[in-house]
Specification:
The protein has about 375 residues and is an alpha/beta fold. It has 10 helices and 20 strands. It has 2 domains: about 140 residues, Glucose Oxidase, domain 1 (3-Layer(bba) Sandwich), CATH 3.50.30.20; about 210 residues, Rossmann fold (3-Layer(aba) Sandwich), CATH 3.40.50. The strands form 3 sheets. Strands 10, 11, 12, 13, 14, 15, 16, 17, 18, 19 and 20 form an 11-stranded mixed β-sheet that branches. The protein has a 7-stranded mixed beta barrel with strand order 1-2-8-6-4-3-9. A two-stranded antiparallel sheet has the order 5-7. It binds glutamine. It holds the Pfam family GATase.
């Protein structure tokens, strides 16, 4: 029997629907993603920690859940909103249904609501706190609880998602380089994409010290995606400054782009409703090429869009921009001789559900470590 569920947003808008996944109550920042595939990767992406995700695609769960596509050891979304969950999952790799997977991991969701109206509301009013409940069905009562929740702005969440212990992902084939990857919420596909290129990846906790990083004797440094407000990243930013000072080649993705921006002396700010989906167009300014990218971010780097700017490590510039709204999508630090020293992107070249237009960035990291970038 379907059980009623209620979604309430912090501005008082509410949606009555049907329970999906686990029953109970959950809170988080309501955000929407436009990805039509890859829900398993989305759900298990640690960057979604403390967020209630609504899928704009109305029909989700069709291919069930398999044993291969998780991006981490569990589902991280705080809650899940789907218009019309698949009643039957059908795929040769599926081992269970999405509904069962959500239930077994205690993820509270809601279905049967007008996700198009919800998305338009979030697009107009901005991402905001929300709650889903199967026990409190009175909007005013649930709203009072939503208003007690912490906001995403100012949230320092890396410690809640990072690995406790360091681990090594071995290079596939001949080992060419050693990289330290600071885990701010890393997805499994990221070290894999490096390993495929002959990189031995040492994944270190977000709290790793400069000494611990240097003890690995890395050829390059990587900082991952992750949840929370980049303005709270004091330790990774300080660490990166020290590593840039030592001339270590650097590549950052998403949160790693924001940390790089902060290390270069730039600020970050919260976007109204963020970029989430797998169809986001980005311009690579060096080549003039457009990439269709996977994105999942609610904050962005504030950088001069034209020309270069001086940093303590050399001149830097915005390398990539969003073609939807001109948000900074990549940064590049060059030496005074014009050689690239470090770079990062706000989007996801490792995107497991694709698209793969930007996979070249991992090759560029290899070239950087070879001294050819
Ligand atoms: N995927 C990410 O790394 C997201 C970075 C950051 N938490 C943001 O929302 O902008």
């Amino acid at each position: 029997m379907s059980q009623p569920a209620l979604l309430v947003l912090e501005d008082g808008r509410s949606f009555a629907g049907t329970s999906y996944g686990a029953t109970g109550e959950t809170f988080g920042e309501a955000v929407f993603t436009t990805g039509m595939t890859g829900y398993q990767e989305t759900l298990t992406d640690p960057s979604y920690h403390r967020q209630i995700v609504t899928q704009t695609a109305p029909h989700i769960g069709n291919t069930g859940v398999n044993d291969e596509d998780d991006e981490s050891h569990k589902i991280w979304v705080a809650g899940y909103i789907v218009r019309d969950p698949a009643r039957v999952s059908s795929n040769w790799r599926a081992t269970r249904s999405l509904d069962d997977q959500l239930k077994s991991q205690g993820i509270v969701g809601i279905s049967g609501i007008d996700t198009r109206a919800l998305t338009r509301h979030l697009r107009e009013r901005g991402a905001m706190r929300a709650g889903i409940s199967t026990s409190v069905l009175d909007p005013a009562e649930l709203l009072a609880k939503v208003l007690e929740q912490p906001a995403m702005a100012g949230a320092d969440l890396a410690a809640e998602v990072t690995t406790n212990e360091s681990y090594v992902v071995p290079a596939e084939g001949e080992k060419r380089f050693t990289v330290v990857a600071l885990d701010l919420g890393i997805k499994a596909m990221t070290p894999k994409r490096m390993a495929e290129r002959g990189i031995e990846v040492h994944v270190l906790p977000a709290t790793a010290s400069l000494e611990e990083v240097l003890a690995v004797n890395p050829d390059g440094i990587f900082m991952s995606n992750g949840p929370g407000d980049p303005e709270t990243t004091e330790h990774p930013t300080t660490l990166l400054k020290e590593l840039l000072q030592r001339g270590k080649p650097y590549f950052g993705i998403c949160f790693g782009n924001q940390v790089f921006g902060r290390a270069l002396g730039l600020g970050t700010f919260k976007l109204k409703y963020g970029h989430r989906g797998i169809n986001q167009p980005v311009l690579d300014r060096a080549t003039g090429k457009v990439e269709i990218t996977a994105q999942n971010h609610g904050f962005a780097v504030d950088a001069p869009l034209e020309g270069t700017f001086e940093t303590p490590y050399g001149p830097a510039e915005v390398s990539h921009v969003s073609l939807n709204d001109n948000v900074v999508e990549g940064l590049k630090l060059t030496g005074h001789d014009g050689r690239v020293l470090a770079f990062s992107v706000q989007y996801h070249p490792e995107a497991a559900a694709g698209p793969h237009d930007s996979a070249y960035l991992f090759d560029r990291f290899v070239e950087l470590m070879e001294g050819r970038a």
